[in-house]
Structure formats: C-alpha cells, structure tokens
Amino acid sequence: MSIAPAEAITETPRLRTTLRRRLFWIAAIVLAILGALFTVFSSASGIPDGERFSIGNAGATGSRAVAEVLRQQGVDVVEATTLDEARSAVEEAGGRAGILFSDASGYLDDDGRDAVRALAEGGADLVLVEPGSDELESMADGIANAGAAADDSTVGAGCALPAAERAGTISQPSWAYRLLDADAEATRADTVRCFPAGDDSYSLLQQPAGAGTVTVLGAGDALTNDSVALQGNAALVLGLLGTHETLVWYQPGYEDFDGATPTLGELTPGWVTPVILVLLLTTVAAGIWRGRRFGPVVVENLPVTVRASETMEGRARLYARQSAHGRALDALRIGTISRLTTALNLPRYADVVEVSRSVANSTGRGVDEVYDILVGAVPRSERELLDYSDRLLVLEQQVAANTPR
Fold this sequence. Notes:
Rossmann fold, disordered N terminus
C-alpha cells in the first residue's frame, strides 16, 4: 500500500502581520536610541569648564575667583577666545586696556602673536602667563625661558615694581625666565626683574613696548583658585591685571589655529591604497567565482504550494553539499522509527530501546544490532550513509513481512 506524499502549503506573511508581531522590539529599540541620544546631549551640555586659567572654571586650576574680584573692583573683565574678539575689546577701550594672554595649546601663529604685541605697543599692558619659546620670541624683547623655577616654598619680590612690592612674597612659581646675554644694555636696564628663581633667572619680568608694557609671568599658579589666596599671590595678580578699566582675558581657541590640517590622504601611508585596490579586486573576483548566479525572478501567486518531495530533495542537496552524513541519516531514522512504531502497534511515546526490542523479537535479530542500525552507528562517509540507509530499508521490510496485517 503506497502513501502519496503530502503537500505542504507555504504562505508568505504579510508586512502588517510581521510589524505587529515585532512592534514591541521595534519600540524598545527606538526608545533605547532616543534615551542614548538624550543622555549624550544632556551630558555634553553639562560638561564643566576645566581649562587652566579660564575665568569660567571654578575648579582648582581655574581663575574665576580672580575675575570676580577684579569685577568687584570695577574692572570690566572681557573673555576672548579669538584674536578678533581680543582686538575689538581693546579698540572699544580706546587702546588702553590690560591683556592677559595664555596659549598653552599653541593655537596662535607668528602673525597672530605679532598682532597681540602690536596691541601692547599701541598702549595696552600685556601679561604673558607662562609663555613658551615661540611666544617669547614674538612678543618679548631679549627674554628666554630658563626652565623650572628653583624649589623654594616662597619667593621675595626683590624689585621696585609696585604690584610686586605690595605682594612681598609669592608661593612657589612654576617657570623662570632670563635676559639673553647678547641683549643690549639699554634693554637690560629697561627690564624690571622680580622674584629671583636662581642662576640669574626670574619669575616676573616687565619691559616697555611702545606705549604699553609686556610682562612675562612664570608664577601662573598665582592666578588659580587653588593658590590665589597663598602668600601675596592675590596682591600680585590684582596689581598686574587691575591697572585699567578693561581687562581682556584672551585665551586663543581652535578658531585661531591657522595651521594646515593634513588630509586623510596625506596621513595614509603610500602602500595602503594599492593594498585596498588589490583586496577589492580579489573580493569581486571571489564573488564572481563562488557567487551563485540566479535566474530571472519568477512571480507566483500566493499562497504557494510546495510539494513534500521538493522539500525533501532540497534538504537532501543541502546535506550532501555540507557533507552532513549524520543529519541525513538521522532524518531517515526518524521516519523509519515512526513507521516501525505504527507497524508493531507500540504506543507513540515508546522510546528507541523499546522499539529496538520489539523489532528484534519480530525479526530474530539481536537487540544491540537493531539499536545500532536505528540510532547507534555514526556514518563517516557517503558510502556508510548509503549502507545504513539500505539496512534501515531491509529492517523495515523484515518487520512488515513478519507482522500480521
């Protein structure tokens, strides 16, 4: 008695049904993305100012305290982050203003530094806070960096500069500066040197520059919130910065950076481009070589009826391609055990051991031999797969012949 193969009906699910089933996960993902974006933007807007000497920084390294005290004394403290802002603020003050300049990141180029020096020559008093060699070369005459200051807890003024005399002593300065030996005697005579830092170097030097002055300050910590109250730090910085009604607090930002930023191509080594091209060509060649070439699109009306034989043959081809001998034999064994259970009138929940014993009683074979055919043996090649499939067929035929109908 032959049984016709069953037909499996496959119906493609509609888009609305698929979206309804996955609505919860879609909503969860969208909410997670929105929450992450909100967190990023809210945290970015709330990042405190941590730049050293910034008047917006209330931390230990900031200078908000100095700026607030100066404002209480009637000084208009104008924060500038670009050269144009600093120049405009000085011009609004009629050229007579104080300028605090700090460029630790080196954003300003030589032309920009010359422009700031020109503001001092026009009548402004320029204070360079811990300047580097480039700033000294462009903005001061005959002053060079002498390295770290001597390790002293306090340093006396040692000069007649009014702000230094009022301070008396200051806390440990960071940097020391010296006059170049080749400098003219007139320049040395015009330069006021305060707070000796060892080996003919000083932490404060002031010299005339046209109608204004240039002051080199190596005691930058005296400006910070953490150290302004130590010794005579407050008297020194307030005396230097409070000489005019307007103080321009100029710390150059990235907008002042005029350097040519290298492009990605300039930063990339020369061998990278050929390697990328070779890899791209290799990928395309591999795709053409190993990729499946599909035929034209076939339009079928839904639902589509797929015959069980087609599914079986397709799955068999997949097993053969992957050399999945064990999976292919398991599929055959499952069908054989199901039919043997029905032929021997065993309950549906009977396990393989019970089926093996019943088959052995029916065919006269050993229980171990039957168990090995039904579940125990593992095929390692196509030849063994075919051999075990034949054994399953013979076993089923023997049971059918020895079982009364």
